[in-house]
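Quick one - inputs below.
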Amino acid sequence: MSVVITGIVTIIVGVGGMFAYFWLSNLLLDRVLFPASGDDIGKNIRRADAVRPWLFLAPAILALGLYLVVPVFYSAWLSFTSGIAARNGVFANYAAIFQNGTFRTALLNNLLWVLVVPAASTFFGLLAAQLTDRLSWGNIAKSLIFMPMAISFVGASLIWRFVYDPNMNVGVVNAIRGLFGAESGVTLIDGQIVDSFLLMVVLIWIQTGFAMVILSAALRGVPDETVEAAIVDGANPFQIFFKIKVPQIMPTILVVWTTITILVLKVYDIVAAMGNQYRNLEILPTQMMQYFDSGNYGFATAISVVIMVLVLPVMIWNIRQARAELR
Amino acid sequence: MDNIAGQKSGLGIVTHLAVLLLVILWIVPTVGLLVTSFRDQDAISQSGWWRALQGAPQPFILSIPTDGAEEAAGEYRLAVNLFETDAIASVPASVVEAGRVAAFGTSRLRGADTDPGETAETRDGTLITITRDGEVTAVSPEPFDGPLSLPVELMAPPQLTLENYAEVLTDRNAEERAAALERGQSLDSMLFSDEALFGPFVNTLTVSIPATIIPIVIAAFAAYALAWMEFPGRGLLIAIVVGLLVVPLQLAFVPLTIIHSWIGIGKSFLGIWLAHTGFGLPLAIYLLRNYMVGLPRDIIENAKVDGATDFEIFVRIVLPLSFPALASFAIFQFLWTWNDLLVASVFLPSDAESTVMTRFVVTNLLGSRGGEWHILAAAAFVMIALPLIVFFTMQRYLVRGLLAGSVK
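Output:
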């Protein structure tokens, strides 16, 4: 129970401390350092206003710097200098992991995940968004499809392990095989390369709701005039969807696709909970955690840098989008 | 235009069916495990969860008295209702109340191999029919010499129980709990024993609540500065925040492990609170800034003219107006920290006292009890119940936050 008390104290100290910091630092700035009185009143107000943003930003910059920015460079540095790189040259860690067969399988699997999951989630999300759009019970349907978003990857893995269970009285997949005449259940996940697709189903199941919610909002934003014009010109519903609506929401489709791609690159829990004992199902994050747990920081940081490199194009694209909006 | 209208109603039914199919496909996995978590341990492997509400057939050997048999046209004919005779004396009351025959037979050896309503013949030529409701008709050329002893399967009503939840939370089944209580062990000590799920539940709560609240405060101040203060480098800072949104957490694990042990935090709750705070900040700042930038300029400028300081404007005006955005982020961060496995396995020690639920399930339950679905199903729903409640009550804010993050 003591940890609960520590938690409560942390909330009080953390939140109270933050407000106290902001209040006191502002007070210090306005009353002591640059008081709005005396000879330099104008100059002091200007100086205080120049410093104030940094008071507001300081805790965030400190936390972001220490927990995200510094680690990125520190990890990169460690990947070139620690472990076997200390003896065999700066690229020794990378050379070693790329020669490892399991790493290459993990990389290949990761690329498969990146190709399949965002595509499938976006497709099903778009389908669900379009179909539920004009339905009277559309919101209930959406809510239910969106629900897996709240479920942890570990919880979702349990749910799908249950679906895949080899016992025909337990697993739905084997029960359905039974309806079509199968005599006994089969073990669905047994370490074949293709079993990765069964694991991807879990993430697609979770992410479709996300894609649906965003694409549904985008579809509502399509101007009615364009659709009406198409109807007058004699377009059928499929043409309206594929030739009028989809091109107009293409930017949103791209955002959804890249957001899910980023998530896929980081996913660890599903493979850890469903296929951890099988080498054929490994992905980069599970490999990285194995080296991390065994204390091989050289290999672990090298793999994390590989993941970072895979994310980099999306990151640059994101920043350019954000900057374009600011202007 | 008639054509288009006609097409529309045709497509309408297809749309309803397609959405229904999609929804069923999406909820069946969860419903299956939820139903299973309330089922008896033995029932789970005997019949599928989709039959949980039908009940399960249970075999009995019943002795049907033949006193009421009547002779007619050289035959002896017995017509009674099974459930109104003494035959059911040994059958549990709940099964009698359900009052349904699943199958019957004429030989103990072959068991109940005949469907209700059909006719089976015994070795000595008696024709027996038992209907679903228990109406027995027996026709024999000879007088009956004593009760008919038949194998019959009766439907037991569905047994839904909370026992699985009690077992997973205390790591003891009903008998073990009773025995432990008799020995004088307190319920408290059972809940907090090493293999029980209750301790990890408390730990998960302990991790996620501070890790949700602290980043909100830090991010709100920063977002205000990025939205409403003019200073050199603002654009660059926003770009950095956007860039940090997608940095893989894996990059931070090794460096932070080294830094944490160097400054003496090590692996601890304090460490994971700080880590979640750092990792959650980019999204928090991004969401809150996007929202605050959209607040009406007049309100803030009028307050400035009236002599309010930035700190006062922030606390009195901007913070209350930003409630929807704060709520959106709080939900995201809560779901993320509650559901997280990866950060917890890196920043928390691996001893039993500081294990969170996700980790407990993966290392303790999936390893040694991977096939015990009564335990796994209950554990899964202890784990996802709170997020589901948050999801269904706060869905509005969740959707708003998602849209703020990606649709312009």
